[in-house]
Amino acid sequence: MSDANAPVIEEFRTHHGVMGGRFEGKHLLLLHTIGRKSGTERVMPLVYATHHGSILICGTQGGAPEDPQWVANVAAADEVTIEIGERTLRARRTVVRPSDPEWPELFGVWADYWPEAHDYQKKTSRRFPIVSLDPIHD
Questions:
Q1: For 87-103, what is each residue's pLDDT tens digit?
Q2: What whole-number distance in Å separates Cα of residue 57 and Cα of residue 132?
Q3: What is the DSSP secondary structure assignment for residue 127, as one 8-state letter?
Q4: pTM of the model
């Protein structure tokens, strides 16, 4: 976990997913991945939107020129673990790339929920991948 994310993760867990500051009133989850090269577990706080029962997260990386590494780690896994509120869930993932036909709709849903996405998009020529997560109900 990056040092920058540590306070966000701590607040998330302390307050059961209810956040203050810039995330106040927003949906936030903790995404657990395994580094595809390192094998190290990583935890990433991410804003999410929902769409037809799926959970959408977006690889904006604040408008950086490359996709965040967590996207590649998710793509390399069959499923991921997420924390939402007090719940920890396993989820199947689908990585939706800008070339995929469903991307415009899913990115639109996510960007409507997190309007900063439009500011991030102005910083780069790349279009952001969307990951659709579907919780596994055992």
A1: 999 999 999 999 999 99
A2: 7
A3: P
A4: 0.93
